[in-house]
Amino acid sequence: MQFAIYTDYYRIGGTEFGFKELLKVWLNRNILAGFRVMYFYRHCIYAREKNKLLFRFWNRCYRNVSEHYCVELPLDVKIGHGFIFYHANGVVMHPNAVIGNNCAILQQVTIGNSGKSRTQVAVLEDGVSVGAGARLVGPIHIGAYSSIGANAVVTHDVPENSTAAGVPARILNTNKPNVPLHTDYMSFEEWKERKNK
Q: What is the number of structural domains in the chain?
């Protein structure tokens, strides 16, 4: 959990997460809105497995924050480390969504099911970027380091290193990878070693 929080924050601006940043998360609802949602989400996921009483506390915090930003992010969604909400408001995700490492999602994005299946939804591999207002519908696979354009409606698989845009979305180009910013953070082993010193 702590490593995921560290990587989430590092992705925002390439800086470490410290005490001052923690105060901003707790005291100011308008600063770091997307990270604030993820901070409480990560704590909820951890507490759900470790301590029921602690989970009730973090879940209450998470519900307040997610309601404030109108975010529907169920705790069953699987999200890798280094995740960014550039703007958290209006995001809706199906509980079965899977998101890889170093992905980024902007405001008003929906990841949901199609009429054919209520349980099968999108899988985003590492390094995927999803533009504002995009809709990812049904059991689709978004390849690593791909970009989804703003307001795109994606109903089919997107190959890795591709850009998809339009309604319905079509592949605009391939072999042009989306390179996520600030992914030069420590590996889990390096982070753990530093923490234990």
A: 1
Q: Is the dihedral of CA 186, 188, 193, 195 positive or negative?
A: positive
Give the CATH number, domain containing residue 145. 2.160.10.10
Distances (CA, A) of 158 to 15, 107, 134: 32, 21, 14
Closest C-alpha among 50, 69, 49, 48 to residue 59? 48
Side chain identity, residue 134: A
Mean pLDDT on 83-102: 92
Residue 187 in any domain: the answer is no
Q: What tokens were used for 75? A: 């705790």
Distance CA 132, CA 145 (A): 17
Give 123-182 pLDDT, tens digit per residue. Answer: 999 999 999 999 999 999 999 999 999 999 999 999 999 999 999 999 988 888 888 888
Two tokens, residue 135:
């809709």
User: Distance between CA atoms of 113 and 106, rounded to whole angstroms?
Assistant: 19
Beta-carbon count within 10 A of 47 CB = 19
Helices (H), the chain: 2-13, 19-27, 33-50, 52-68, 188-196
Q: Does the pLDDT value for residue 5 go beyond 70?
A: yes
Strand (E) or helix (H) holding 175: none
